[in-house]
Specification:
Two copies of one chain form a homodimer. Chain A has 524 residues and is an alpha/beta fold. Chain A has 20 helices and 17 strands. In chain A, helix 3 crosses helix 14. At the A-B interface, helix 2, strand 2, helix 4, helix 5 and helix 7 of A face helix 2, strand 2, helix 4, helix 5 and helix 7 of B.
């Protein structure tokens, strides 16, 4: 059979069920072959950043990779920012990047570019298939590379003639590398730290366990909660988790703050820091006169489990040592009352906390408007929280797209901001095309509000019009209800807490996509 | 002074007057410094692909570089596709890419990525400024590299601390490398070819001069026209020129076709091909059973001038040898009549040909809908035609943005298609913000129509729904009038030739941005 068909059959056999696609000429045989393999569903995206972000959201929720289909170097380039986020999230994901026919490359046709170099900046595995007889085995290895703990981006470059030539056969799936087990002495060391052994400083509350990666799912949270309850250690979650399970009945978890000053305050007095699936905390950006590393001077850092290790098993083994018989401490069910009055970042968060449905998936790119969300939703029914892992904005709507495709029976809430939503706004069209149950809320403050803040934080003084105009999203105001309707998504605007509650309740009650533009009266 | 301010003063002194900007935290000192240097105008773009495409359009029309301001690796990544187009266009352009502070990079904060590798894929010059004392000289060299013949992309990576630290001084401009003069023997060789000398085959019409790059401006066209008139050689233009001057009073020029089969037909019988600023013709994509190189077997290829040589001077010298006393053959003024009836790609082209104003700049990304445009506009008043040089779609609206900033007194017509316009649709907001005199026409056929065609051309058989759905832009239909209004651009829809003529005349008569969605009844 043709290379394209063997490739698609191998992807499907390896557990890849969806391909978020933005194809071009060099991918036409791949597209044509989809008809023969219904196990791989093609989902059209109108921009590659939507496709890669959707594959990220899918992988976070499904726990197995989606594929993307991208058109040569520029197509991959358009998807790179969300692949950067996926790389930081540790999401399993397989890119298929079409290229010119092998014999055509030396002619340097207009679309010729250095795909391999682009791919290596975000991928843990890059392969250029050389022959149609190889492409299926290449794909099986790529899926295994993507699925290997903790998950990552694999990129298969597919020359057009490798795709269209005969002589290929599907390949058997390749088993991915499982997470390594944490050695017993490392667990015992952590237990000693928690017991305040003789080789470390005293003081229970001065010990912090920083949870990240897979530790933010229920088994890890339960074990960590037992440890904290028994030892007095404090739990913190990494700032931008790929997927955090939370809500009533699960142990609650405070996350490390984004702003370095706040994170420093959270960590003040910490003498012993245990890393469980998280990296040592560093400032998101550097600032004049602030350190890059956020732990207090003299704080001892102990790594219980790295990203490629089985952090949940390690936390459970540790809990069995230091907290035998202790139960996890669940977050009680508790919602804010529906607020009245003006719509602010705070009242918007209360509305969301009051209405968040059971089993919701929240894709959070609310940025400055999201400050009150964690507290307001902590006691809502169980849900998953997906965040902007790599700082490349334009992730929220695409990640919601993929999460909704992965979990068609769960409501998805995409929380965006006017600034960041514009980067990948064509995601809304895919919400409509696939009739995904995504409610998109755009917090509209007519500013790159985070940059107002950052301008002050870096010590820059910007009194003038030239600088201010580059942070200003008014003149003209963006009308997100018009943008949504232009892509087939029903939309409404809310300018008070009551209006927002009414629109959100209506959107959540109806299946299919909706958008609410939440115009904030006190910009967050 | 701070590095940022010395950098900006140096850019301005080197002739860079505009910075298309999408800044983030690491660029805040650059932004703040704009207030002190009014010679460098910041233009906000809501997506980096708009900023880089606008800088391309600006550079093509102004003949000197604009700057872009981009936020770390993901910001550069979002701008890469249009930088690829700019690279193919030979456009002078200077990227300023902010990065983490030098001492912060080793902490691998979330936004850390391999900026240098990304930059090298599109840039002829990449420099990472190491100290604030160096940044001004680096910038001066970068501008010179961008301006050196034939123009190209220079990328300056600016660490945040280099930007914010004191100790910098502006640097003097560095003279760019001028185009090389073509040696006399090369011109004499070309003259011999045109005279049908004894060492080449006979036959005047079998000689083709392929014009590209700077040869597509008036001096080159006039000289080439004299040569053709005197020798019987045939003139063709490269398929996707960066900037083609055309219209009544200028020599007309047929362009080499995009589709390889058509280009082969145009070149059939050619025995001698003279390249004047153009590259040897190759197929845009490879296809089973079609050659990559488009010249007929046995065709002799002679290079008169390459991209870095002074092609206009070479053509003039050649004309003085083979066509002394011969005058250029101007295209007569001639417009189609305004058509009635349905709106098709053909009648839409006639409307544009009938109404195109004197001095217009056309940014052409009409793709399949643009087939009839060259003939319909050939005798319109003088105008410039800018095309999709690198095949990375999403260029048309941003290039129009930059062209309008470069030439505020000229009307700009952006011809887009529904598929390609979505990649960089936030360009419309900048049209509104800056009140640019851009009329955007979106040809809406509800398809990636070019892929319908390509699916057949590669020999792929796609009868099934799965494949067809990935080429289909309906379900839901995109409403470009709603999208435009959502970004502050007045918009109308036209579904007949008469409606289109009325809306286009109205839009061209009013200053400021407009959008017309041209719904084609016979998809082009």
């Amino acid at each position: 059979m043709r290379g394209a068909q063997a490739l698609i059959r191998t992807l499907a056999a390896s557990g890849v069920g969806v391909c978020f696609s933005n194809p071009g000429t060099s991918e036409m045989h791949f597209v044509a072959s989809l008809d023969a393999v219904p196990q791989l569903r093609g989902v059209l995206c109108l921009f590659e950043g939507v496709a890669t972000g959707a594959a990220d959201g899918y992988g976070r929720m499904a726990g197995r990779p989606a594929a993307t289909l991208l058109h040569l170097g520029p197509g991959l380039a358009n998807g790179l920012a969300n692949l950067h986020n996926a790389r930081r999230a540790g999401t399993p994901l397989v890119n298929v990047v079409g290229d010119h026919a092998t014999y055509h490359k030396r002619f340097d046709a207009p679309l010729e570019s250095d795909i391999d170099s682009l791919a290596r900046t975000v991928s843990r595995w890059v392969r250029r298939s050389a022959r149609s007889a190889d492409v299926a085995a290449d794909a099986a290895e790529g899926v295994a590379a993507a699925r290997g703990a903790p998950g990552g981006v694999a990129t298969l470059i597919l020359p057009a003639d490798v795709s269209w030539s005969e002589g290929a056969q599907p390949a058997a799936p390749v088993p991915p590398r499982p997470p390594s087990l944490v050695p017993d002495p490392v667990i015992e060391d952590a237990a000693e730290v928690l017991r305040g052994g003789t080789d470390v400083l005293q003081g229970g509350p001065a010990c912090v366990i920083l949870l990240g990666g897979a530790a933010l799912r229920r088994p890890g949270l339960d074990a960590a909660s037992r440890i904290a309850a028994a030892t007095g250690a404090r739990l913190l979650g990494e700032t931008f988790p790929a997927r955090l399970e939370r809500g009533a009945g699960l142990p609650g978890l405070e996350r490390l703050a984004y702003l370095a000053e706040f994170a420093q305050a959270q960590l003040a007095g910490t003498q012993r820091l245990i890393l469980a699936g998280a990296r040592a905390p560093v400032s998101f950006f550097a600032y004049p006169d602030l350190p890059s590393s956020l732990g207090p001077d003299g704080c001892q850092v102990h790594t219980l489990a790295g990203a490629d290790e089985d952090v949940c098993a390690a936390l459970e083994a540790l809990a069995d040592r230091v907290a035998p018989g202790t139960r996890p401490q669940p977050q009680p069910a508790q919602r804010p009352a529906l607020p009245g009055g003006g719509l602010t970042a705070e009242t918007a968060a209360e509305v969301i906390g009051a209405l968040l449905p059971e089993g919701a998936i929240v894709s959070d790119e609310a940025n400055t408007s999201g400050l009150w969300l964690p507290a307001a939703t902590a006691g809502a029914p169980r849900h998953d929280w997906l965040t902007l892992t790599g700082g490349a904005i334009g992730q929220g709507l695409p990640v919601a797209t993929g999460a909704a495709v992965a979990c068609p029976d769960r409501p998805v809430l995409a929380l965006g901001s006017d600034g960041s939503a514009m980067y990948t706004i064509p995601a809304l069209w895919t919400h409509a095309r696939e009739q995904l149950d995504v409610t998109t809320v755009i917090f509209s403050n007519r500013r790159y509000a985070i940059l107002d803040l950052e301008l002050q934080r870096v010590g820059a003084v910007a009194g003038g019009d030239a600088a201010r105009s580059l942070l200003d999203l008014s003149r003209p105001d963006l009308d997100f209800t018009a943008l949504a309707r232009g892509m087939g998504v029903p939309a409404a605007r809310a300018a008070s807490a009551g209006e927002f509650a009414g629109e959100l309740a209506r959107a959540l009650a109806e299946p299919g996509p909706h958008l609410i533009e939440a115009v904030l009266s006190q910009p967050g």
